[in-house]
Design goal:
alpha/beta, binds glycinamide ribonucleotide, 7 helices, 9 strands, 208 residues, phosphoribosylglycinamide formyltransferase activity, 2 domains, Rossmann fold, 7-stranded mixed β-sheet, two-stranded antiparallel ribbon, Formyl_transf_N, single chain, EC 2.1.2.2, Phosphoribosylglycinamide formyltransferase, GART
Length: 208
Amino acid sequence: MKNIVLFASGSGSNVENIIHHFHDKPNVTIAGVLTNKRDAKVLDRCNKLKVNGLYFNRTAFYDTNCILNILKSLQPDLIVLAGFLWKIPSNLIKNYPNKIVNIHPALLPKYGGKGMYGNHVHQAVKDNMETETGITIHYVNKNYDEGAIIHQSRTEVSSKDSVEEIAKKVHALEYKHFPEVIEKLLNEKSSPNIALGDVDLSQGGVKQ
Ligand code: GAR
């Protein structure tokens, strides 16, 4: 059994899409959805979909081990930031190396960094008359939007596209690719890593 914990700050349409994707997969559980906004729409979606949703405030996140303790109890194989806008504190990054992934609504390294989220990103893409944009799924490190890239997908942008139209194209890419990438990462994490010390070639294989 694999556990996913999701973090989101707003609407949570990606969260809902991911929950639907794994609904009929008996080996994957959405262990919980954590949000930093008390009135985030994502909590309504959790209620509707019967998934544990939990709100936390800034103090709990940055000044206590509260979220770390909750994560320890949920035992995530993967922590997924799906529209989560706060920087992840270093204690969480240290405890979950290569287990926290984020989706960014642009082709990083373009249009990343502090303040670059949601429609701010799409507005910048439009202002710069880009002919394409896309999504980036990446590991999370201590800097905003700078961890190793796992996946990118692209879509064309026309000068006639409004910010909302760009957002729609990007969301379509997110809905298509994010659950697939998460599933692939979970499968990779389940393949046994055989350390050299475990292999006894004189006996013809892996030590029991
Ligand atoms: C998504 O487009 C996601 O890529 C973006 O927020 C949106 C959340 O939409 N994330 C960022 O901008 C992070 N910097 P949703 O709440 O409907 O899933």
